[in-house]
Structure formats: C-alpha cells, structure tokens
C-alpha cells in the first residue's frame, strides 16, 4: 500500500515538472508570466501589459481650464454708402445757392462748370463739345458775326456776354423740381425773362437742357444756319484737330489751316469758298486763300473779272513779277486800265511794296490811293 502511494507522488511530481517546462518554453515574442505567457513586443523582458499600466499611472493628463473672454460690445456700424436724406428745407436753401451759381456761370462764361450741373442722362455729348457749342453760341460771338444782332438775344443759357448781367427774378421749388426765373440786361437793354427748369439729382440741383442744344453732336448741327458758320467750322476744326472741317470754313480757311501749320490746298480753298452763293464774297474768299497759297490755279475759280486780275496780281507778288499779271490782260481801253490797277493792288497787297503803286494807271486814282494804304 505504501508502495502505491509512493508511485502516485512520483507521478504527480513528474506531471508538475512537465507542465512547468511547457510554460517556460514560451516562444518569442512571448515570455513566461506567472503560469502563462505574455506579450513582450519590445523585447525588454517586461510584459507589455504591465508597461501600459505604468504609463497610464505615471502620465495622467490633467484638464487645464481655458478662460473664454466675453465678446466685446462693438459699436453699431455706420454705412457710409447710404445716401444722405435731405429735408425739403435743405433743398430749398441749396436751390438759392444754385441760382447764384448760374449767375456766376453767365458772367464768367464757365460752360465747363455748367456741364457738371446737367443731369447725367442728358450729357449725350462730351464736356469739350458742350463747352465749344456753348462758347460758339454765346452772345459775345453772335454779336460779332450776326449783322442783324441788335440786342442781348437769349439762346438757351449761352448768353453770357462781357458786361451783361443776369438778374434773379424768382425761384420756385416743388419737391425735386423747380424753375429759376432770370432777366438779362446789357447796357440799357432789358430782355424778357427767361425760365430755366432745374431738377434735384445726385444730392444736388441740376439745370435741364433744351433740345436745341442737342440737335446733334456734329458741327453741322450747330454751325449751319448761322451767319457765322464759316467761323464756327474754323474754330471747331482747330479745337478738335479735324483738318477736314477747314474746307467748310469759308474766308477763315487760311486761319484754319494756319492752326495746323499748313497752307490750304487748291481743292480746300475751292471747297471752302464754294459755300458762298454770292459772287463777290466767293471771289474775296479765294483771294484770301491766294495770299497764303500763291498758286495761280486758285484764280481760275474766280467769277468776276476785276477780282480775277486782283488774284493774278497776288500770284505775281509771290513771284515778284508784276508784268506777269499785265501780260495776262486781254482787254483794251478803260477796262484794261482798271484791270491793271487790280494787278497792282493785288501785287502790293502781298508784297507790301507800295512803290509799285506808282504803276497804277492815272485814271484810277481811287485804286492808287487804296494801294498806298496797304503799308
């Protein structure tokens, strides 16, 4: 019986030893731990599970409180793009100031300033064109070129004339529209009142235009139909640097071309002078062109014989050969003497050599006197 007990004890010891050997034979990356194996991935002979516990215990994160500031109270934002709202009383006061401004524009002929006070929708020509048209239709120009001009003749608001005054008679404002009533005086002459409609736009008062100003944006719409249209075309051509319009400048064709440092061509002279229906102003126009050109072919466009020899005299003056004009005279008798006088006058008109006046025929005393006055 004792022998059996001994065998049993020996068997148990063997079983325990075998079990221990099995545990101790853990294969990498595992190592023995208590009665089992544990993971040791970093091969430091410490179970990874133990390292995780130590890390969690030693590196405990602490919550740090963060103070969030209270939002600042911002002032209410002012939108500067919002249009200002004017009271009616303010508009009325500004209308009075605008009426005073129109008076200053009149007396100073500040047409560019007037353009700035025309509604944008009605500015269908440039400021430069507007200023030109206003100037060319002002009373100062009309008085110089209209032979029938006898009084301050109102033509839209382009009536400023040196020495004239614009008197405010009445100002009416109704909401955003109104009218300014003026009267103009020049010397002892009074003109009937003129009413200028005004309108409130873009925070200021503006003066409405008349259709007569905007018949078109070409010089034909302004220059034609006036007694000074030739001057108008000459000024327009030079102001806007458009040489072609010189051909419509009549007796100003030479001045027009001089503005471009040029001499009018024969075609330009003939075209410019063709605007005159009557023969005398037509021929005078060509003689003026001849003074600048010197090309005798211009003379072929002249209609009246005396004017023709006058033109040939100018051509002779360019060549300093008075006999060239005398040789061209085919007439005889009294007519020949008159035409010779025209030759001399034309020659001296160009050369200013009054000694040649002595060659004027004796029976043409008036022509001789006029010749000596050409100094």
Q: Quick summary of this structure?
A:
The protein has helices spanning 2-24, 48-58, 88-108, 111-115, 127-136, 139-145, 219-223, 229-239, 253-258, 266-273, 279-293, 305-319, 322-327, 333-351, 365-372, and strands at 30-33, 36-39, 165-174, 177-186, 189-190, 194-201, 204-207.
Write up this protein.
- Among the domains are: 88-207, Roll (Nuclear Transport Factor 2, Chain: A), CATH 3.10.450; 261-372, no CATH class.
- It is 45% helix and 11% strand.
- The protein has helices at residues 2-24, 48-58, 88-108, 111-115, 127-136, 139-145, 219-223, 229-239, 253-258, 266-273, 279-293, 305-319, 322-327, 333-351, 365-372, and strands spanning 30-33, 36-39, 165-174, 177-186, 189-190, 194-201, 204-207.
- Helix 10 runs antiparallel to helix 11, helix 11 runs parallel beside helix 12 and helix 14 packs parallel to helix 15.
- The longest helix has 23 residues, at 2-24.
- It starts with a helix and ends with a helix.
- The model is unreliable at 17-23, 55-61, 145-162 and 211-215 (pLDDT under 50).
